Each structure stands twice: as C-alpha cells, then as structure tokens.
From TrEMBL:
Example of a GO cellular component annotation carried by this entry: plasma membrane
Domain ABC transmembrane type-1: 254-473
Chief place where the protein resides: membrane
Cell compartments where the protein resides: Cell membrane
Membrane topology: Multi-pass membrane protein
Family affiliation: Belongs to the binding-protein-dependent transport system permease family.
The keyword Transport is annotated on this UniProt entry: yes
UniProt-listed GO biological process terms: transmembrane transport
Transmembrane segments: 12-33, 258-280, 292-314, 334-353, 387-413, 452-476
PROSITE patterns tied to this protein: ABC_TM1
InterPro entries: ABC_transporter_permease, MetI-like, MetI-like_sf
Protein name, UniProt field: Sugar ABC transporter permease
Length: 482
C-alpha cells in the first residue's frame, strides 16, 4: 500500500502555526462582533431598558442615594427639625412684613395724593429693612437644606432652585424700588406688583414647608426613589411581551407589514420575471443597453432614490398633483407609494436572477419543441417555467424577508404618517402612526419613547416571524419537490 508523502521541496507561504495564529484571532473577533449584539439584544428584550438606565451615570445614582439618606436624616433628627422650624418661622415673618409693605405701597400709589413721595419713602425704608433681614437668613436657608454641607455629597437639591432664585429676584427688585424718585409712576407700580407676586409665591411655598416639614421631606424621598428606580436596569421577564401583545399600535404595524409584503412581493416578482423574459427574446435589439438602464434603481444610492420619490409624490410634487395624492395626510395614498417604491427598488434583483436562469436554457430544446408544434404558452409552461422556478423561488424568499423588514421606505417617504386613532377589535385603541411597519414601530419606541427593552421585544418577535416564514416555505417546497 503506497502512502502519500509530502514533498519536502514544496514551499508553503506560511507555516501551519503562523497560519493558525493569523486565522484564529480573526475568527474569534468575527464571532464576537456578530454574536454579542444578538445575545445583548435578546437579553435587553426581557428588561426595562431605557435610554436612562441602559448605561446610567454612577455619579447620578450615588447623588440620588445620598440625597435620600440626607432627607431621611433631616426628617428624623430632632436637632435639625428645631433649627428648620425656627428658620422657617423667621422667613414667614419677613415674608408677611414684606407683603404688607408692598400692599401699602400700592395703596399709596393709587391714592396719588400730594404727599405721595414722603409716604413712599417711609414704606420703601420699611421694605428695605425687612429685605435686609431676609438677606441675612438666605445663607441659612441654603445651609440648613444643603446635603453636601451635612456630609451627603450630592448635586440634588432639597429645596428647588427656583425658590432661592425668587428670593434673589425679590432682593434685587427692592433695590430698584429704593430709587423710587427716579422711576416713572407706572414703572414703579409694575415693579411693586411683580414684587408682590414673587412674595405671594414664596409665602405659599415656605408656609407649606413650615406646616408639613416631614411630609415635604417624605415626598422628596418618594420622588428621589422614583428617579433612582428609573435608573435601575431590571429583569421584567415577559412584561414587555405582555405589553406588546396588548398594544393596538403593534397589531396595526403587524397588519401593515404583512399587507405591504403581500402587495409588494408579487408586484416586484412579476415585473422582474416579465422583464427578464422580454429581454431574453432574440427579436429585441439593444438588449444590453436597455438591461443596463433597467438596473439603474439597483445601482442608485437608496437615499437619492428615496428623496426623489418623496419629492415626486409630495402633495405639490409632479406625480402627487397628477394623481391627487397626499402622502402626509392620507393613509392609503402613502401605502401605495411605499409599494411602488419597493417594486422599483427590488425588480432589478428578480430580473437579474431570472436572466441568469434563462441563460442556461438550451436554444436547441426550444427549437425542438417549436418543430414538434408546441405553442408559445406550451413552451413557457413546460420548458421555461420549470427551469426558472427554483431560482425565482429563492429570490422570492429573499425579497419577502426584505419586505418583512421594511423600514427605510416609510421612514424617508413620510415617517409613517399620518397620525391618528388606531382601533383593534378586542384589544383597544391608541393614537399612533397609521403606516408604521414593524421595524419602524420599534425604531420609534427607541427614538421617541426611549424604551429599549420594549423595542427589543418587538424586534425579537419580528425575528421569530421571519424564522417561521422561512421554515414553513422550505417545508412546503420539500414536500412538493418529492
């Protein structure tokens, strides 16, 4: 028995070890960059992932936790309760005094007697005195309710910034009123009314804080816990799917996707096959040039094609005006344009596949059938169609899968408009985009609602639909082939 021996004189480009060292990292990287996005997407479908919690800021989480701990300390510490009570009581006294003084100033202005400037001077002096006292306690307000000063490092504020800003605005406004002799009467009255409005809002806020100190802190803790909960990525198991299958917008997008597929696939397959058969005839001259022209939709960048179609079918576009179409407000006008655009984009693919199959057809077989008396339809049915059936079937499967994943066409043409009420029997109703296909529905849940987990659950359903479709098609094809 002869054994094949390697030729010692044969030169290899790379030794085996070097080849493995080059190939294995490439395979590992390829598997990593193809598998981990799939695994990640499937995992996200079972979580409450949003734009906020999918990659949360650790500093923000730490700040919220510290703010909650700070509020709990202020709520339970008797020492700080007493400090806050005294401080808030002083603030309320100053607010009451400022309010009564501003009201008196308005009365003096409205009376408009001969001693108006003397009386205003007295009231402005009183107002300035009360505001100086408020100015002295303002740092105390910021200090008592400052968590960072208490050792709880956080950027979250217990008191809304708006309240402190209003105090500053009131202080600045009183500085303007102090120059009352140089101000026009109407301007002075306007400033006084603005100051009174600011004082009223501050009085309401600090009165509520004084009377319901613990309740205020409890509400702050509740709100901060909600914000913290929103930043926590949690496993919700099948909640996203339960919500999906009770969402009327999902059923509408599923219906529009299936309808788009059922309408557009026969259109592009029929057009592609007919054009391939037409240009396979020896009686057609200039076939190469005409074929090249028909491949233009395939070669043109999608965005350029989409913008052109959108322009043509706008209500004031040439075809929109010619056929009285409005893709922005009419649901079915837009749907028709989707199907026509999809047909225009995809028929070159079907035509090319069919032409490739027809190129293997023997002229002798056709001529022999013609001599035997077979008519055109008979030759097509018994010779041509059986030959092209398998390639066209494969092309149909591929283009159907592409139609089920339609996304860019409705997005670019009109974004899935119009918006209106969507009613689904036994499910309910919701307001949404009436021409949302499945992929666009998921895209909008991410871009508009920031709901990554919900969108991922929808995409997982789309994948299962496509897998089921391909499996069913091949099962039926195998049975018929037997």
């Amino acid at each position: 028995m002869n054994r094949r021996r390697s030729n010692p004189n044969k030169n290899y480009l790379f030794p085996t070890k070097v080849a493995l060292a080059l190939v294995l990292p490439s395979i590992i990287l390829y598997m990593f960059f193809n598998i981990w996005p799939i695994v990640f997407s499937i995992g996200i479908a079972f979580t409450n992932a949003t734009r906020e919690n999918i990659l949360p800021n650790p500093e923000r989480i730490k700040g919220l936790k510290n703010a909650i701990a700070c509020a709990n300390y202020l709520k339970t510490s008797e020492e700080y309760k007493e400090i806050a009570r005294i401080l808030l009581a002083n603030v309320m006294d100053y607010m009451e005094s400022i309010k009564s003084t501003l009201i008196s100033m308005l009365k003096v202005i409205e009376a408009n007697n001969s001693e108006v400037y003397i009386e205003l001077g007295q009231q402005v002096a009183k107002l300035s005195s009360f505001v100086r006292r408020l100015t002295r306690v303002r740092p105390d307000i910021a200090r008592v309710f400052n968590c960072s000063a208490l050792g709880y490092e956080t950027s979250v504020e217990l008191l809304p910034r708006d309240a402190i800003d209003k105090i500053d605005r009131l202080i600045n406004l009183v500085g303007l009123l102090a120059n009352y002799q140089a101000l026009d009467a109407n301007v002075f009255k306007f400033y006084t009314e603005v100051g009174l409005n600011i004082t009223n809002s501050l009085e309401v806020y600090f009165l509520k804080l004084e009377e319901d100190y613990e309740d205020y802190l409890e509400k702050f803790i509740f709100s901060a816990n909600k914000d913290l909960d929103r930043l926590q990525l949690k496993i919700v198991v099948l909640d996203n799917f339960a919500r999906l299958f009770s969402d009327p917008r999902f059923y509408n997008s599923l219906y529009k996707t299936l309808l788009f597929t059922v309408v557009s696939v026969p259109m592009k397959v029929l057009l592609g096959v007919l054009l391939a058969l037409f240009y396979s005839s020896p009686m057609i001259y200039g076939k190469r040039v005409m074929r090249a022209f028909l491949l233009v939709p395939w070669a043109t960048p999608f965005l350029l094609s989409a913008i052109t179609w959108k322009f043509m079918y706008l209500p004031n576009g040439p075809l929109g005006m010619a056929f009285n179409l409005n893709v922005n407000t009419d649901e079915w006008d837009a749907f028709i344009v989707y199907c026509l655009f999809e047909t225009w984009l995809a028929y070159p693919f079907i035509m090319t596949i069919t032409q490739g199959a027809l190129s293997g057809l023997s002229k002798e077989v056709i001529e022999a059938a013609y001599i035997d008396g077979a008519g055109l339809w008979s030759r097509m049915r018994k010779i041509v169609f059986p030959l092209i059936s398998k390639p066209v079937t494969i092309a149909t499967i591929l283009t159907t899968g592409a139609s089920l994943q339609a996304f860019m066409i409705p997005l670019v043409i009109n974004g899935g408009y119009p918006i209106g009420e969507i009613r689904v029997p036994y499910i309910g109703s919701a307001v949404g985009y009436k021409n949302e296909v499945l992929i666009l529905f998921g895209y909008n849940r991410i871009m508009i609602d920031n709901e990554y987990g919900y969108a991922a659950s929808m995409y997982l359903v789309v994948v299962l639909i496509i897998v089921a479709y391909v499996t069913l098609w091949f099962t039926i094809s195998r049975r018929f082939s037997r």
